[in-house]
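Chapter review: from sequence to fold.
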Amino acid sequence: MGQTYISSVYPGDKYGEGYPYQYISNGAVYYDLSRTLGTTIESAHGQSGSAIYGSNCVAISILTFGVDVDSNGFGLGGGTKITQLIFEFVEDFLL
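The token string follows.
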């Protein structure tokens, strides 16, 4: 904890001249459980499956949920930690 985490995505609520563009959001961890990580990273619909990166640019979590904070669509995101088991599952799937 105490680190800044980032997510680089193409969220459904951010558009530039009608075309989606890449959006980078950063934030801190507000809870860290054995399998999930909750962050203050802004999230929106369409970001699920994107990586949450630690300060060393290594993916540490997969964004799997968001919590709407206000009526403007602002939300906080969190996800499943990339444990050895999750890493091996994805690796086997890709190979």
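Two observations follow directly from the output. Residues 6 and 26 are 4 Å apart (CA to CA). Residues 5-94 form a domain with the Thrombin, subunit H fold (CATH 2.40.10.10).
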